Model the fold of this input.
Amino acid sequence: MAVRPVAADAGPKPVFKRPSLRERIKSSRTAWLYIAPAALIMLFVTLFPYIYQLFMAFTDYRVRNLRFNLLNPETWARYAPPFVGLDNFVRILTNQLTIENYDFWRLLLFNITWTVANIVFHVALGVLIALVLNSKTVLLRRVYRALFVLPWAMPGYVAALTWRNMYDDRFGAINQLFGVINRLIGTSFPTDTRWFVISEPPIGGLLSFLPLAFYAVLLANIWLGWPFMSVVATGALQSIPKELYEAASIDGASGWQQLRKVTLPLIRPAMVPAIMLGTIWTFNQFSVIYFISQGNPFGRTEILITQAYKLVAEQRLYGVAAAFSIVVFFILLSFTLINNRVTRATEAYDV
Amino acid sequence: MKGYSVELKDLVKVYGGEHGDPRVGAVNGINLGIHPGEFFTLLGPSGCGKTTTLRLVGGFETPTSGEVYIEGQAMSHVPPYNRPVNTVFQNYALFPHLTVAQNVAFGLAIKRVDKKEQERRVQEALEMVRLPDVGKRKPAQLSGGQQQRVALARALINEPSVLLLDEPLGALDLKLRKAMQIELKQLQKEVGITFIYVTHDQEEALTMSDRIAVMAEGSIIQVGDPVGIYEQPATRFVANFIGESNFIEGVLGGTGSDGAVVEVGAERALIRPDAEPWPAGTEVTVCVRPEKLMLYPPATECNGLSGTVREVIYIGTDTEFVVELANGVRAVARLQNIDGRGLGEFAVGDAVRVGWAMWDAHTLED
Ligand SMILES: Nc1ncnc2c1ncn2[C@@H]1O[C@H](COP(=O)(O)OP(=O)(O)OP(=O)(O)O)[C@@H](O)[C@H]1O
Ligand SMILES: [Mg+2]
Done:
């Protein structure tokens, strides 16, 4: 046998080979065993409904199709929903649904307006109140801080129903409050406003598509939404070292300049993700719209998600509703992607 | 009185007392005069009130009583931004969302200095701290030492006449710390302004300062230049806090031409005479640094005391001998390992004479 000459750098260099998927699964078998039960449950509880909904969105799924059972082949022929391709989506986007006052683009416009208006108020109010309560001179600030989490501690629909009652035209707290004010200082505010019936817009011009009911639900949702922003802002504020303010004040920055040049830029990294979350929640704020205005008057305070619900609850149009939620999903997805691009939400400062 | 850059008069600061918080006396009546252009260090253990004193000078705290004068002006009603003072914070306190240049320019931007002028002065300041090329970076992209220099530039650009530095090198590693100590000192000479420097690191204080005030529990124990503080600590606390010391109790005898006599048990030794000597017969504590002690064979004629070696500890550059003196006090002598002098010459159990030069021993106030 000849001895192979060994040159200094001859022969194949050792290459690090990534282990194949099989090898990797094999080497982490125990780990897989541990997560298998949870993964299985997740598969059925979360993933399966998604996939099924996706399937429904491309069919004309109605009440009779509820008998369709994947596990029972006898039901397949009779009850399988007919495949309709993109028909549901086309009908949604071109307003070919047989429900009253349906106009997809008006709904979308309203939904966006609703979201923007809410977020503006939530953030402005939340940050403002966080700033006020962050100053040590405010008495009882612990009490306030505890109080403002209250809207959170309540289940959303309970809060919504309470507001619904407050807006009652005859017995509601709001109209009664106007009555009390009238009696106390002699003003003559109307005390029987039918908040969700009046279709006359309170503000004309560009905003004339917003009925009085919009402002009513907006108020209710501001009450519900600002504490979240305030809690996030408070956390961010408390993590700003006081030396930064001292450094700024040595350099002659006034309180207002410190707010603009130090506080706001430094709470921004915390606020951006909060705003994104808040936007998604508000865009799909079902309980406030559904329980308080119920879309009145004439569906003009309907948002996409409540409309989707009505498609099921009133019309049993399961397929269309499924397609509807997929549309909503893509709207929010594109919002998130654009927002990520624009604000680089992940950017944070090392303080 | 006149001519001080910063003067503290009977300065007292008590924290708390409101809302049932316990009252904490952080500064208990400090009197101090700091000269213009001086590198003045407040040195003391944690919690002794150094930061509080500095914050009183900077105007971030108001004194409970007493007064801060800067350039002869009483400061009690002057807000921080109107004092000719700037601060370098321990954690740098750079604005994380601004670039280095914007950080340095912060004060100028607030004062609406012309943009061109701002740029020029920022560049100048960054060059002064030897960081001419980092203007466009964010603070997080700099090392700790670089951030510290940016903080320095940001303070200096406002041309204060007093710069306050609160443990500015505390977060740096030892090597960088040493380098920055030298640089800071040089910088201070260049700009010629008063530095009030806080540290709890005695070596740092000794190497950098023109004068040092040693603090404990809100009071100043001793003020002096590094040599004075080290060679002649006034109290046990100072002697122990700065370096190590031996304390030997004795009774004062007479003062002769070759030094003051102190009687320790049956022995007598000479020490440096005090400027205002106590009367003979006073019980005193004599303080001698370990490195000033020499060991000799027992019969040697020299100024010092007799004892027995109890421990020998080799520590590389030196060897430490723990010697039990005749009166039971254990004294530590530290001999440099040169010429076989420390090592091997004496062993545990040997009788020795512990000697010192008269000038190297002195009495303490307490
Ligand atoms: N804002 C405050 N409220 C109450 N007590 C305080 C406050 N700041 C400091 N103290 C107390 O005052 C004393 C002196 O504190 P100071 O911060 O001046 O110490 P220091 O010498 O700077 O210590 P260190 O070397 O640890 O920084 C301490 O007992 C401290 O607990
Ligand atoms: Mg301190």
About this structure: Chain A has two domains: 32-84, 90-343. Chain A touches chain B through 20 residues (CB under 8 Å).
